Amino acid sequence: MLDLRTRCASLIKPRPSRRTAVLLVFLGLAAAVHAAEGAPRRPIEAPGEMELATPEAVSRPAGLEHAAPTDDGRVQVMVELQDPPAAVVFAAAMRGTAPSDKRALAAAGAASKAQVRTVKAAQDGVAAALAAAPIRARELYRVSKALNGIAVAVAPENLHGLAAIPGVKRILPILLEHPTSSQSVPFIGAPQVWANTIGLPAGADGTGVKIGI
Fold first, then answer.
1. DSSP, res 147
2. Is the pLDDT of residue 36 over 70?
3. Distance of CA 25 to the CA centre of its chain
4. Is the predicted pLDDT of residue 8 greater than 60, yes or no?
5. pLDDT in tens, 69-114
6. Where do runs of H (alpha helix) occur along the chain?
């Protein structure tokens, strides 16, 4: 009989108490909040934001919305060409050889110099098409070693015609860069010096120091 009662008791699952149920609910909510905090945040669109967008911003292709503007109302983009840059040709020529192989280095150097000339000829043709109507882009500078491209300033409404030019691979936005010390200052350990948490005989936060220029 005892064995039968034990077996029956093992088959019957006890119902959780009210306190246990409430605890489980709170644990579930905490897990959901933690998952939401870890999820990537997306910008919240302000009411009427689309109505306030300028016609120039709406006409920009996807991915070029934040291209750096110019004083004359244009935007700055990098027009990348199809031909590989000189650095890619150099790396391909050196593939499978030792970095100290002088003969391979000379051959790779000659190949990269020849590619620079090839890139220049291709850029001249694309640059002429960029400056012509209806695009009328203003050339800013060219690159050919690490990237084969022409930086231009173009009216936002003419961005759609850039990719249709023969020889163009893709259009990349040129973004504004702002100098900041948010990464470099902690990297060199300056906050630890300022707070004197490394055992210095005195603080080094500039207190009492005069600088003459």
1. -
2. no
3. 40
4. no
5. 999 999 999 999 999 999 999 999 999 999 999 999 999 999 999 9
6. 2-11, 18-38, 49-52, 55-59, 86-94, 102-131, 184-187, 190-195
* Of 169, 167, 163, the residue nearest 137 (C-alpha): 163
Q: What phi, psi does 78 have (nearest 5°)?
A: -105, 120
| Residue 57 identity | A
Q: Please tell me the distance from the alpha carbon of residue 62 to that of residue 75, in angstroms, as a whole number.
A: 14
Tell which wins on pLDDT, 29 or 196: 196
| More reliable by pLDDT, 24 or 66 | 66
End-to-end CA distance of the chain: 99
Burial class (CB in 10 A: 0-12, 13-18, 19+), 145: middle
CA angle 197, 199, 205 (to 5 degrees): 60
Entry field: residues in the chain: 213
- Which residue in this structure is represented by tokens 């005989």? 201
Whether the CB-CB separation of 126 and 81 falls below 8 Å is answered with yes
CB half-sphere exposure, 70, CA atoms < 13 A: 18
Q: Which of 63, 28, 31 is nearest to 163 (CA)?
A: 63
Q: Which of 151, 160, 158 is closest to 135 using CA atoms?
A: 158
**pLDDT in the model for residue 154:** 95
